[in-house]
Structure formats: C-alpha cells, structure tokens
C-alpha cells in the first residue's frame, strides 16, 4: 500500500493543473459560484441543490452551501427542507467518492485530487484514517476541509462503509441544518456579505482548509 500511495503522490504532485487551468483559480471559482447561484431561479432548483451536493462530495469545487443559502433566503420557511435535500445529496455523494477511491482511483480519483491541488494533503489523510477514521471524516464533513478528499481517500484506504455513513450523516447534516437555521433567523444579510467580500472569503477559506488539515492531526 505504501508503494502504491507513494507512486500516486508523485503523479499528483506533477499534475496539479489540468489542461493549464487550476480548478481553484479565482476567476474560474467565481464563475462557478455565479453559475451555481443561477440555479436558485430555476424551477428545478431543489433538484439542482441535490445534484450539486451529491457532486461536491467527490469532485465539484463549489460547496452546495451557496445554493442552499440562496434558496433558503428566497423561501425562509423551506430552509429546513432545503437543508434536508442538501444533506441527503451530500451523504449519498460520499459513497460516490468512496467508489471512485475504491475502484477507480488510478483512472479518475488521482485526476480529481490533482485538479483540486490536494496531493500532499491526500497522503496525510491516510495517516489520519489509521488513527481515527470516524473523527477525520466527521471533521471534514462539518468544516471547510474539502470533504471530497476524505470520501475518495476512504475508498483508497478501505474505511468501513458504516464509519463513512455515520460520520457523513452527523457532519453534513449538522453543517447544512446549521446554515438553514442561520438563514431562517438572519436572512439576506449573509448572502450580501458573501457577494461583497467573495475574494477575501476565498482566501480565508483556503487558510482555514490549511489550518484544518493541520489541526485535525491533533484531534486524532
């Protein structure tokens, strides 16, 4: 296993850009963010939220929180319903990430990790799983740490499905229902703040991701 991971690490480190475009470049990320928000005005908004949450669990870089917030702001009384849809999509998507890591890491998983630029962190996740896989996945599910890295890694390191499910259920539901509750009480002010300070928040996001990967090692 160590030889396998070492080989994949080198491949990931040498392929952090896909077709010359890093998926976390500010311009591309901003366009993706705006595209995600555009679904809030569609009659298929609930389905879009489910699909976004599903895909974000194993490859899509924009978190479903942004669409969840927009929909909840437009229909505050349905905030809990949207939180439920988002939670279900994300939890089911976690198994998609597991499947990629378990069966298709060489053909699909490694490319996703490389495109997102999380090669070194991906290797650290394996060590975290050896200590306490439940805490590691739970922390990633609830915090800004990229959940997709952990779901794919869960398949590579063969974490039990029950551990993946329980940690995802608690972490993802806790996160999205918390957002739904905040929107219910504070409304449009949160979205206005995000739109105004998007670039700053993006930088803070990456700082939190880095700190999260560092601090999680002390939790396990």
Shape descriptor reads: globular
Largest sheet, described in full?
none
Q: Output mean pLDDT.
A: 79
Structural class: mainly alpha
Alpha-carbon Rg, integer? 17 Å
Number of helices: 11
Percent of residues in helical segments?
over 70%
The proportion of residues in beta strands is: under 5%
Overall number of domains: 1
| Helix and strand sequence | HHHHHHHHHHH
How many distinct beta strands? 0
Question: Alpha-carbon distance between the termini?
Answer: 21 Å
Residue windows where pLDDT falls under 50 for at least 5 positions: 15-25
What does this structure look like?
It is built from 11 helices and no strands. The protein is mainly alpha-helical. It has one domain (about 1-220). Helix 3 packs antiparallel against helix 4 (about 65-75). The radius of gyration is 17 Å and the shape is globular.
Give me the secondary-structure topology.
Blueprint (H helix, E strand, L loop, with lengths): L1 H12 L12 H13 L6 H12 L8 H10 L4 H25 L1 H12 L2 H24 L4 H10 L4 H26 L2 H8 L1 H22 L1
Helix pairs in contact: 1-6, 1-7, 3-4, 3-5, 4-5, 4-9, 5-6, 5-8, 5-9, 7-8, 7-9, 7-11
Give me a quick take on this structure.
The protein has 220 residues and is mostly helical. It has helices spanning 2-13, 26-38, 45-56, 65-74, 79-103, 105-116, 119-142, 147-156, 161-186, 189-196, 198-219. It is built from 11 helices and no strands.
């Amino acid at each position: 296993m160590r030889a396998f991971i070492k080989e994949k690490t080198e491949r990931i480190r040498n392929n952090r850009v896909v077709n010359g475009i890093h998926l976390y470049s500010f311009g591309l990320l901003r366009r993706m963010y705006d595209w995600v928000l555009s679904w809030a005005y569609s009659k298929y908004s609930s389905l879009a939220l489910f699909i976004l949450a599903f895909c974000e669990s194993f490859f899509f870089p924009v978190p479903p929180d942004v669409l969840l917030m927009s929909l909840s702001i437009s229909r505050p009384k349905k905030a809990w319903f949207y939180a439920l849809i988002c939670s279900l999509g994300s939890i089911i998507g976690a198994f998609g990430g597991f499947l990629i890591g378990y069966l298709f890491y060489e053909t699909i998983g490694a490319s996703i990790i490389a495109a997102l630029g999380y090669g070194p962190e991906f290797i650290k996740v394996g060590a975290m799983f050896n200590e306490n896989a439940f805490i590691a996945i739970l922390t990633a599910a609830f915090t800004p740490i990229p959940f997709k890295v952990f779901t794919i890694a869960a398949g590579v390191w063969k974490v039990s499905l029950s551990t993946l499910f329980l940690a995802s259920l608690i972490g993802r539901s806790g996160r999205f229902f918390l957002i739904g509750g905040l929107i219910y009480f504070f409304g449009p002010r949160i979205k206005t703040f995000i739109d105004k300070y998007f670039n700053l928040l993006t930088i803070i996001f990456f700082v939190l991701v880095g700190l999260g990967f560092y601090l999680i090692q002390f939790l396990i």
